[in-house]
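Structure representation:
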Amino acid sequence: MDAQLLPLVAAVAAFILWHVIMAGDRVRGALVGRLGATRFAGLFSAGALITLALAILAYGHAPYSELWDAPTWVRHISLSVMPAACILIIAGASTANPSTVGMGGPEAGSVKVVGILTITRHPLMWGIGLFGLVHMLANGDVASQILFGGISVLALLGTLRLDAKKRRVMGRKWEEFESRTSNLPFAAVTAKRVALDLAGIGWPRVLGGLALYAVMLFIHGEAFGTVPWRI
């Protein structure tokens, strides 16, 4: 491996390890007991933002080493998927959900499966995961695979880890919530375990997701040196 990639590898590893360690039962329990849930959530978020910022900074200074030249149609797919990813992120962050860190912890059995939860019980993580995957496809260089691959792995494998943890901690309450939802988007709808509730997502969340997408497009050239629609 090119030695110039080591800062990026280290930063992405720190980003992933911060999430894995802080989400562990022992560390989380000890810190919540000492700091309280609100302060722990603040510490968790601050560490995540700092390690992500370091990863982005290292990515900006990493050498370009091409693995493949992404064809135009792949980049069009990326541009087409990103609005859905942004809507999942905004809707997931604004919908009561016992699986979301810092959401306030409503009991799984008391949560109405409406809106974005009818698509997936992990909308925020799927939105982040899709963001990472499409950027891996559209950027065929080593540094992009490290950064966006790390983000995708953390988010998508994190849904499985979170399911296992909630099942262990919450027992039947979580199993009931699982029975009414799905991890894989639209799986519960396809299996007719729940009806798709587009109205429950609401236009404000859809417009919020599209606004996030527009902002990302607007700053992309200045922040990352490439203009996505000029392909």
